[in-house]
Amino acid sequence: MTLTDGLIVALLIALNALYVAAEFGAVAAQRSQIAEQAQRGNERAARLLSVLGDGAALDRYIAACQLGITLSSVVAGAYCQATVARGLVPWVEQTWQLQPSSAENATFVLVLIVLTVLQVVLAELVPKSVALQFPERVALATYLPLRAFAWSCGGIIGLLNGSGFLLLRPFGVQRGGQLHVHSPDELAILFSESRRGGKLSPASHARLARGLRLSTRTVRQMMTPRSEIQALEVTASGAELLQKVADSPYGQLPVYRGTLDRILGSVSTKVVAERFAATGTVPSLEELVSPLPFVPDALRSHQLVRFLQREHSTKAIAIDEHGGVQGIISITDVLWELFGEIGDELAEPAARIETLPGGRVRLPGALRLNDAELWLPKRWEGPAMTVGGHIVAALGRLPVEGEQVEIGGVRLTVTEMCPTAVRWIVVESAVARLDAAARELES
Question: Which of 39, 223, 339, 443 could pair with 327 in a Cys bridge, judged by C-beta atoms 3.0 to 4.6 Å apart?
Fold first, then answer.
């Protein structure tokens, strides 16, 4: 084996490694990272982005990589058999005392084994590992040579690619390629991995997780239930109206006639206060009522946002399939799902979760079931939306104040009731689960 033969084989292995790195780099590269470099004026990144964003162009690009891998492997094997192997035959014949035909066969097998090992290690495993570790860098570094190769072999690539899709057509595979779109579950895994790798802070990860969860939430899961709606009867006296406005923590109050199922609209507490301050009299509610839209309680959160935008409203009345009023929903409820508690501009501070001695926790009955998960020793699942609702559904009745019960493996005491709902409970042995969740989040 001469120096020239060694250099040619090394060049062919390097070309193979280039095509492998280009393929894995293009597949693993994040478009957002490439787009960021393109916005900074990187022309190569802009061209690569146009390929990654076009399914058909990406198909051709990957096909060029695969054609390059195949050609370099075949040429390397043929060259080694024609030159390196033939040059080693006399040495093998003398060293192993073999007949000429046996020495030739043994040399071909030996060269094939050595070449295969070199190809697998140097031209496959090493470039693949580097490309997966630094996909954007590798994709940008290999783009120009791959683009030149794809242009020079465009006809062959088109013929081979077309033949492949022609064979796949009976199986329902369409030509043009499909860019990978991550499902919400895949995104959740990616967010978790990014947090563990230090790319996302715990707070950012929590916000992104809330955003994913928001996409599956319905109005019924986010609304203030009917039992907690603060509303005004349209025939209420001036004194009743002023007292309600003074006591209410909300900026708008629904107005109904006779029953909550006959909502007329809403009245602004600010407008009522301004009119009373200006004239010294309380206006009739019918003069101040503004329309309030109605939405199905099964509507998804993103549909709700678009609906409120079209209606130029921040609130809506949630109704069931029979038209009965189930609750009230506002844009604040949607924002709460993303960012946590956001109070009304006139609202008093909401009731807080309170940790008590002995690992106990005091929870409001109106706390949503999914938000109570960290505070419960065991997870609760069921059709109810709130902690109080789950307790009532599990018992099949309204509990009484001071009653101690065990529900779903959770021991609790009902410490306060309102006429038709659970107001406060105390959960036993809840802090241990919260501490474990906090440690997992920090890790």
Answer: 223
Cα distance between residue 388 and residue 385, in whole Å: 9
Q: Cβ of 422: how many Cβ atoms within 10 Å?
A: 26
C-alpha 340/C-alpha 355 separation (Å) is 19
Q: State the chain's mean pLDDT as an integer.
A: 81
β-partners of residue 368 are 386
pTM of the prediction? 0.48
Sign of CA dihedral 348, 244, 423, 327: negative
Q: In this predicted model, what pLDDT tens digit does every residue of 217-242 receive, in sequence order?
A: 888 888 888 888 889 998 888 888 88
Task: Quick: pLDDT tens for 169-202.
Answer: 777 666 555 455 566 666 677 777 777 777 777 7
Contact 319, 220 (CB under 8 A): no
First to last CA, the chain: 56
Ranges of residues in the chain whose predicted pLDDT is under 70: 1, 93, 168, 172-187, 340-351, 430-443
- Residues linked to residue 380 through DSSP beta bridges, in sequence order: none
Q: How many Cα atoms sit within 13 Å of 42 on the Cβ side? A: 18
Measured between alpha carbons, how far is 247 from 225 in angstroms, rounded to an integer? Answer: 19
Collect all residues with Cβ–Cβ distance below 8 Å to 98 and sequence separation of at least 6: 92, 106
Distance, in Å, from the CA atom of 292 to the CA atom of 315, rounded to the nearest integer, reads 7
Where do runs of H (alpha helix) occur along 42-199?
Answer: 43-52, 55-79, 85-96, 100-120, 126-133, 135-152, 154-168, 184-196
Domains delineated in the chain: 3-171 (no CATH), 184-214 (no CATH), 219-339 (3.10.580.10), 354-442 (3.30.465.10)
